[in-house]
Every structure is written in structure tokens, then in C-alpha cells.
Design goal:
Elements: H1 13-23, E1 32-35, E2 42-47, E3 51-56, H2 64-75, E4 86-90, E5 100-104, E6 109-110, H3 117-129, H4 150-159, H5 166-177, E7 187-189, E8 198-201, E9 204-208, E10 215-217, H6 225-228, H7 232-240, H8 246-267, H9 272-286
Antiparallel strand pairs: 1-2, 2-3, 3-5, 4-5, 6-8, 7-10, 8-9
Helix pairs in contact: 3-7, 4-5, 4-8, 5-8, 8-9
């Protein structure tokens, strides 16, 4: 397993096998294999034909499993696309320090743009934002203001000098920072909508995965998908289907750009899937009509 973070814990097939066997003996004899993904917080191992084990790589991902166990079953009945179904929580053991989880496996291909993507994503967001937020987690970075991201974006621009048009990126970022803030009630948001977290099956968008950033806050955060996944035509259709003002779209563009700028230098050599999505996102923000697929 390639390490992406300096503080990443050791996770191996043998460790996961021991954890499953000790804590869920009913699954001991099922085949287990690592799953390649664009994820950065968790390592994935397929368990049998219809389950996946998800283990935090870093301490900052701790708590995601418990949060998803609490909230995904609440959200799922209201959503038009499939989302992960948590099955079990595992405990730290054998030197592995974090709570881990088992989910139902979802078939599909990630980061594949389909003709229905814009309309399906718009319907998904409208449904998600319409769910009651009582007792929901407040914004934890995602869904909050963009300003706290500014130092990280500035550092990324320095790191990317000579790789991208940093002047154009800086101008786009400053425009997003200047956009009026959200003054409505906090709404549910996924918080990490990009191609690696969107699955397609039979030529249609079928599932949204990885709700580790789930919270309530400024819904503009989820508008990032207009640049992280959709092309120019899809972006136009997506925007037409949603009721947000120009300021929200500017903040959404800022979320897409900031995430891509920060991710590209950090993951360039360790996570080619996410680095590729980041590079494509930057191009979509700076050159909106570019054909990047």
C-alpha cells in the first residue's frame, strides 16, 4: 500500500485479515483483497463478493465511520442515488489504533462522465439539501467560509509555479474569496464531490460514495462538482437545474479550485487518480470550455 501521508499508519492484507477474523469470525473464510481507489483518508479491502472493509490511514479520518454509521441510514431513503450502507464497526486491535468499518460493496466505475450526470447530480443535491438537519454536524471546514483555506492555496500556488498559470489561478481564487457569504440556513452537504466519489453503472450515474466530510453548512461547497467532474455542457445544465445565485456559484468554483490546487502538489507522486482529477479541475476552472476527457 503506497503511503500518501507522513503520519500514515501501517495497514496490510495480513493485518486486515486478522482484524476481520478476530472481530467478525462469521466472515473469516471470505476472500480478502486490497482495492485501488483515489481515496486519501481510508484504505479499502474487498471482503467476499458484497462487502468492503474501510480503515482510516490517518488520525484525522477517525470518527468518519461512526458518523457514517449514524447518518447514512437516515439520509439514504431520501436520496435518488445509492449511497454506502454501513454494516459493522470494528475496534482497534493488533497494533492498529483506529475504529474501522465494514460496508456493503457497491459495483460501478469511478470518474466516468455519463450523459445523465448533470441532471442526476442536481436531483441528488436537491434531495440532500431538503433533508431535515436536526442534530446534524455543523460545518467542519467544508461548508464553512473559504477564507481559512487561503494560506494553503497561496502555498500551493508557489509549489505549482511553472506547472499551471498561477496568475490566472490566483485571480480566480481572489474572485471566489470576494463573493458574498451564504446567509441562508445550513444545509446538508457531501463535502467531497469529485469523480473518484461518483460511481456509474450501465451508462448512468448510480452511486455517491465516501461521506467522510458530511456536515451541514454552505451548500456552495457541493457545487464544486460542476468543475471537479462535469464538462462545460454538463456544468450549464447542472447550473440551470439548481436554484443558487451567482455568489454561490462563485464560492463553489472557489471550493473546486482550492481543493485542486492543494491536492495537485501534495498527491502528484502518490495518488495519480486524485492528482489527475485535480489537474483536470484546474483546467476546467481556468479554461471552462476545455475538453479534458
Amino acid at each position: 500500500m503506497t503511503k500518501m501521508h507522513a503520519d500514515e499508519v501501517e495497514i496490510s492484507l495480513s493485518l486486515v485479515s486478522r482484524l476481520v477474523s478476530a472481530q467478525f469470525p462469521q466472515w473469516t473464510d471470505l476472500p480478502l483483497s486490497p482495492v485501488a481507489s483515489g481515496g486519501t483518508d481510508n484504505a479499502l479491502y474487498r471482503l467476499g463478493a458484497d462487502m468492503v472493509v474501510r480503515l482510516p490511514r490517518i488520525s484525522s479520518a477517525v470518527g468518519q465511520s461512526e458518523m457514517e454509521m449514524r447518518w447514512l441510514p437516515v439520509l439514504a431513503p431520501h436520496l435518488p442515488l445509492t449511497i454506502p450502507r454501513p454494516l459493522a464497526l470494528g475496534s482497534p486491535s493488533f497494533g492498529y489504533p483506529f475504529t474501522w468499518s465494514v460496508y456493503r460493496w457497491l459495483d460501478g466505475s469511478a470518474d466516468v462522465l455519463t450523459p445523465d450526470a448533470a441532471s442526476s447530480l442536481a436531483s441528488f443535491l436537491l434531495a440532500l439539501q431538503g433533508i431535515d438537519t436536526t442534530d446534524a454536524m455543523p460545518a467542519r471546514g467544508r461548508g464553512g467560509p473559504l477564507a481559512p483555506r487561503d494560506p494553503h492555496v497561496r502555498a500551493a500556488l508557489v509549489a505549482l509555479s511553472g506547472t499551471i498559470d498561477v496568475d490566472a489561478a490566483a485571480a480566480a481564487w481572489e474572485s471566489a474569496l470576494a463573493a458574498p457569504a451564504w446567509d441562508g440556513p445550513p444545509l446538508w452537504l457531501h463535502g467531497d464531490l469529485h469523480g473518484a466519489n461518483l460511481l456509474t453503472s450501465h451508462g448512468r450515474l448510480s452511486a455517491v460514495i465516501d461521506f467522510g466530510c458530511l456536515c451541514v453548512g454552505d451548500p456552495a461547497c457541493d457545487l464544486m462538482v460542476a468543475w471537479t467532474f462535469l464538462d462545460s455542457a454538463g456544468r450549464d445544465a447542472f447550473r440551470a437545474a439548481l436554484p443558487f445565485d451567482d455568489a454561490a456559484w462563485e464560492r463553489g468554483r472557489g471550493w473546486a479550485l482550492s481543493m485542486a490546487l492543494i491536492a495537485l502538489p501534495y498527491y502528484r507522486f502518490t495518488n495519480p487518480v486524485l492528482a489527475g482529477i485535480a489537474a483536470r479541475t484546474i483546467e476546467q476552472v481556468l479554461y471552462p470550455t476545455a475538453r479534458t476527457r
